[in-house]
Design brief:
Structural class: alpha+beta
Shape: globular
CATH topology: Thiol Ester Dehydrase, Chain A
CATH superfamily: Hotdog Thioesterase
CATH architecture: Roll
Strand order of the largest sheet: 1-2-4-5-6-3
Distance between the termini: 31 Å
Largest sheet: 6 strands, antiparallel
Number of domains: 1
Number of strands: 6
Length: 142
């Protein structure tokens, strides 16, 4: 069941097409955790060059989708509304499955630490039950 649609998401984070990588939010505990979906469409701009005969979603964009999901959670807190979330670091990123056009990318992020304007998060992106990417990140709220 959809909790937030794309228009709701645009009210929380500043990202816009073609760089808005979250389509729906299924579950949200502001500042704690989120489950979101990215529908990987064949017409995505990056598939034209990555790779024309074998389209694969770039790993950096999977990491960005995880970051955007985490940002939705953090910016859903009343005290953070209207701010932005910036990467401060990425650790332990691992890519385990190729993400292709027509995949539904399920993204789960847990905010593990958040003090003042600096936080840590653990994120997972899955296709069906297969892990595509896991990563830990450090972020700043500006």
């Amino acid at each position: 069941m959809t909790l937030l649609n794309k228009e709701d998401i645009k009210k929380i984070i500043p990202h816009r097409e073609p760089f808005l990588l979250i389509d729906e939010v299924l579950d949200l505990v502001p500042g704690k955790k989120i489950t979101a979906i990215k529908y990987v469409k064949e017409e995505e701009y990056y598939f034209k060059g990555h790779f024309p005969s074998n389209p694969i979603m770039p790993g950096v964009l999977i990491l960005e989708a995880i970051a955007q999901a985490g940002a939705i959670s953090v910016l859903s807190l009343e005290e953070n509304k209207g701010k932005i979330v910036l990467f401060a670091g990425i650790d332990k990123a691992r890519f385990k499955k190729i993400v292709k056009p027509s995949d539904k990318l399920y993204i789960e992020v847990e905010i593990t630490d958040f003090r003042r304007n600096i936080g840590k998060a653990k994120g997972t992106a899955k296709v069906l039950n297969d892990i595509a990417c896991v990563a830990e990140s450090l972020f700043a709220v500006a």
